[in-house]
Design goal:
The complex is a heterotrimer of chains A (276), B (228) and C (133).
Chain A (H helix, E strand, L loop, with lengths): L1 H24 L3 E7 H5 L2 H13 L2 E7 L1 H9 L5 E4 L2 H9 L3 E17 L11 H11 L3 E3 L5 H12 L11 E3 L4 H11 L2 E5 H10 L6 E5 L6 E9 L9 H12 L1 H9 L1 E2 L2 E2 L2 E2 L3
Parallel strand pairs in A: 1-2, 1-3, 5-6, 5-7
Antiparallel strand pairs in A: 3-9, 4-7, 4-8, 4-9, 4-12, 10-11
Chain B lengths: L1 H15 L3 H34 L5 H11 L4 H12 L14 H25 L3 H9 L4 H11 L1 H17 L2 H7 L9 H10 L3 H23 L5
Chain C lengths: L5 E10 L2 E11 L15 H8 L7 E6 L2 E2 L5 H4 L16 H11 L6 H11 L4 H4 L4
Antiparallel strand pairs in C: 1-2, 1-3, 3-4
The chains are: A alpha/beta (276), B mainly alpha (228), C alpha+beta (133).
């Protein structure tokens, strides 16, 4: 009947249209999985158009926690990774999922908290600061999402020789991104560990005067290294290895490194280029 | 509280300035939801009719299963679809992950049980006198089915509107299957999730207002189809 | 002897386990008027529905004009009609309700006038009623 035929044609048409617009995207494109800190700070939006202009390669990225990004790479759903969890990255390569690792930039982690600093951690070493938080049972916000940041935080507790306060009432695991977690800390007037880049972004969004201040910084263990990981073609034959290498090389190139160094908010550098 | 007011203002700004990221998000939302609605209606209306009209052995258990599917959390559907279309999954070679098509597939899975279950209920409650009247007027099988469906058209419209509401506002599927890629698979709902997660509450409210605006526009046009 | 219009043979109808009709044989002649009487629930409506070919009997045969027929068969569809106590009106205009039977037979000649005649024959004016919902 007239109506039915028209309907099924319409359905087929719509479906094909959506399918077509998707396949148009694919060919000289690279898919990247990265973490929320590179995305939420606005670095990628600023940086990637330069990459596309200089190399002609289109790059799309999805921002998730490091855990999920690594998983996406393992499942060959993406072509390249930009993450910040060096021990996990090295294990990744050993396990045959990753091929090349190129360090590209770093910043550092800091502990932030309310100006009033109830646990009195200001200026202390990281281990002393965490011990103080624990003994005061001051609220401490953790990402709790196995992200690069979260992994670093767990490392800090270990280094301070304090068992992870997983079930303690004052240890609050938000399971969310860094900005969201900082917001929770602000609400609860608690402490949290964040990368400096995201902290500056948070400051910026509050017009430069945010309730949470940096209280602990500078320990060597607080270094936050970002690297580009290509995927091992043996594990992911369909991944665009050559394009991924081009991206990796570009990130280490002089022009990209300069761009990274020039990226500022509130006149502060968020990431420090350190490709060798 | 003041972010709510700021949100309203921001919403107007975004729309008037033809903000690119907002408009691409709107387009993404409309594409995926329209596609999934057309398919779920095209399949769900007939299936719902068959389920409601005829009596057969498996009718009750089937209805129960269908009604249970109405409670599917969107993230679970998203995870399920991911398992299938990820490059490790059986449908991996179609490259549907991180695409609007992938999102549409997930949303179809979400909407189909809604359309089918509601249609089945409506059809079951059709006045038996109707079929009698139609047969006595000389209607054949096809005319009976088409006329029955036309008689309950307002109920079917309600089914469509319900399903559309669910599809338009879901986040779990779009996020998991689409990847929230800016300008490509970022829908209004995933954009709201992102902005609120970044603490940009005013932006979140603004996008929410845009979304409600779309829903409103759709419902206004549908209201012309209803009884005056 | 002219063929009976209707011939019912060994007709039985059950609703679930309950038997409501049990007719060995019944014949209705052409041009005749037959009345059925009985208390509520005695099966009158059921019998009428079966004879109008709107309901398939559980057992037995219904012969119409010398042929065995079943519901929705093309030969009986346009020739047998049933007028119930409480007719169901379709959700459309008066005009379309009356025109329905003609439209599904694709008989659209002179539709307006024929509807006008039909309305007039029961004392309703075309202008006043045709477009009422």
């Amino acid at each position: 009947m007239h109506g039915k035929k028209l309907m099924s044609n319409l359905l087929a048409g719509v479906f094909l249209l959506v399918l077509a617009t998707n396949s148009l995207a694919g060919e000289k494109g690279l898919m990247m999985a990265t973490t929320t800190s590179t995305d939420n700070t606005g670095l990628l939006e600023y940086l990637i158009p330069h990459f596309e202009q200089e190399t002609g390669i289109a790059l799309k990225w999805t921002a998730t926690g490091t855990g999920k990004a690594l998983k996406l790479g393992q499942n060959c759903d993406v072509d390249v990774l930009l993450v910040h969890a060096p021990p996990a990255e090295k294990a990744y390569i050993e396990n045959g999922y990753g091929k090349d690792r190129q360090e590209v930039m770093y910043n550092d982690f800091v502990i932030v908290g309310p100006q009033s600093d109830p646990a009195n951690i200001k200026g202390k070493s990281i281990s002393d600061a965490l011990a103080a938080v624990k003994s005061h049972t001051a609220p401490f916000m953790s990402r709790g999402d196995d992200s690069g940041t979260n992994k670093k935080e767990k490392l800090l507790w270990k280094a301070a020789q304090i068992p992870l306060p997983d079930t303690e009432a004052w240890y609050i695991q938000t399971g969310q991104g860094m900005l969201a977690t900082i917001n929770v800390a602000q609400e609860k007037k608690g402490y949290t560990m964040t990368d400096r880049g995201t902290y500056i972004k948070y400051q910026d969004s509050r017009g430069g005067n945010a309730p949470l201040k940096i209280l602990v910084e500078g320990d060597e263990i607080l270094l936050n290294q970002y690297s580009v990981l290509t995927l091992d073609p043996a594990n992911c034959p369909k991944a665009k290895y050559d394009l991924a290498l081009k991206f990796s090389d570009w990130m280490a190139s002089a022009s990209a490194q300069k761009l990274i160094g020039d990226f500022r908010l509130l006149d502060q550098k968020l990431f420090i280029p350190n490709a060798k | 509280m003041d972010f709510i007011v700021a949100g309203f203002i921001k919403a107007i700004e975004l729309l008037i300035n033809f903000d690119h990221s907002t408009y691409t998000a709107v387009s993404a939302t409309l594409q995926a939801s329209t596609c999934s609605m057309l398919i779920s209606l095209g399949a769900g209306l007939p299936c719902g009719f068959l389920l409601g009209y005829f009596n057969f052995k498996w009718k009750r258990p089937l209805r129960t299963v269908l009604d249970t599917l109405l409670a599917l959390p969107t993230v679970s559907v998203g995870l399920l679809v991911y398992a299938f279309i990820s490059s490790q999954g059986p449908l991996g070679q179609f490259g549907l992950l991180f695409t609007l098509t992938g999102i549409a597939i997930g949303q179809t899975i979400l909407a189909f049980p809604i359309v089918t279950a509601i249609t089945a209920s409506i059809v079951e409650n059709i006045d038996p006198e109707l079929k009698l009247t139609l047969v006595s007027l000389g209607a054949g099988k096809r005319n009976i089915i088409m006329t029955c469906l036309w008689e309950v058209r307002y109920g079917l419209l309600a089914a469509a509107v319900t399903a559309y509401g669910r599809v338009l506002t879901e986040v779990g599927i779009s996020m998991m299957v689409g990847g929230n890629i800016k300008y490509h698979t970022r829908t209004i709902t995933t954009a709201i999730a992102l902005e609120t997660n970044k603490g940009m509450f005013a932006d979140g409210i603004a996008l929410g207002i845009v979304l409600i605006g779309i829903a409103f526009a759709v419902n206004i046009s549908l209201s012309f189809l209803r009884k005056q | 002897m002219t063929q009976a219009t209707y011939k019912l043979n060994q007709l039985q109808h059950y609703y679930g386990d309950k038997r409501v009709l049990d007719i060995d044989g019944l014949q209705i002649q052409k041009g005749s008027i037959t009345g059925l009487t009985g208390p509520n629930g005695s099966g009158k409506s059921t019998l009428l529905k079966i004879m109008a070919f709107a309901l398939k009997p559980t057992a037995g045969e219904v012969w119409f004009n010398g042929r065995r027929e079943v519901p929705l068969s093309p030969r009986v569809r346009s020739r047998v009609t049933l007028l119930t106590q409480k007719p169901y009106l379709l959700k459309r205009s008066v005009f379309d309700n009356i025109a329905y039977g003609l439209k599904i037979r694709r008989d659209r000649d002179n539709l307006d006038n024929r509807i006008k005649e039909a309305l007039a024959s029961v004392g309703l004016s075309y202008d006043g009623f045709a477009h009422r919902q």
